């Protein structure tokens, strides 16, 4: 008998559906998103920070929004949160170059304090406007996904998803679709003392869960 062809999991569905998922290759999406005017955030930011990583990546990490350094560099996770993330990926045995990194919202949002640009959270309308890009990235890559922090978790699993309660557990938002949520590395950087150590260990453990899920192709572990 011919064995069934190995199939990739279906793309994680977003909890809040998108009217139309943009089509075209990842490269075409990136070019189109560079001129995106779907919400006002493009006006003050330097550039669109689209996802980055190999188109064949089996794992996608979804953050919140680009920060100051990402806005200047045009790449996700190049600032302090990204450094912590890379450190943890390495500890979890995941090659950061094999991972696709992206964000829920693709422009930096900030307010000025003196000469500094301080991060400010995208509102619900801005998050909704940006969802088609994430939906398209998920659709083209068909990866397993890790949501970093509540914004990404709510986008993937809905607003009733509780990060503290449900982090680190595979969710199945669609048939054959695997995604889990964990701490955002920025949240860990804001913590101090034992809380910080504990959350760091949990984020590491959740990345290991993601790596193990990929390794066994999401088959149920044998009893
Ligand atoms: N935080 C995020 O959520 N994304 C980035 O790209 C950088 C920091
Ligand atoms: Fe477009 Fe998203 Fe930027 Fe808004 S934040 S302009 S929706 S890319």
Task: Set down the secondary structure blueprint.
Blueprint: H1 26-34, E1 59-63, H2 68-73, H3 80-91, E2 99-103, E3 110-113, E4 116-119, H4 124-141, E5 144-148, H5 150-157, H6 163-166, E6 179-182, H7 185-190, H8 193-215
Parallel strand pairs: 1-2, 1-5, 5-6
Antiparallel strand pairs: 3-4
The structure holds uracil and iron/sulfur cluster (SF4).
Walk me through the structure.
It is globular, with a radius of gyration of 17 Å. The protein has a single domain, classed as Uracil-DNA Glycosylase, subunit E. It has a four-stranded parallel beta sheet, with helices on both faces. A two-stranded antiparallel ribbon has the order 3-4. It has eight helices and six strands; from the N terminus they run αβααβββαβααβαα. It is of the alpha/beta class and 223 residues long. Helices cover 39% and strands 12% of the residues. Bound molecules: uracil (URA) and iron/sulfur cluster.
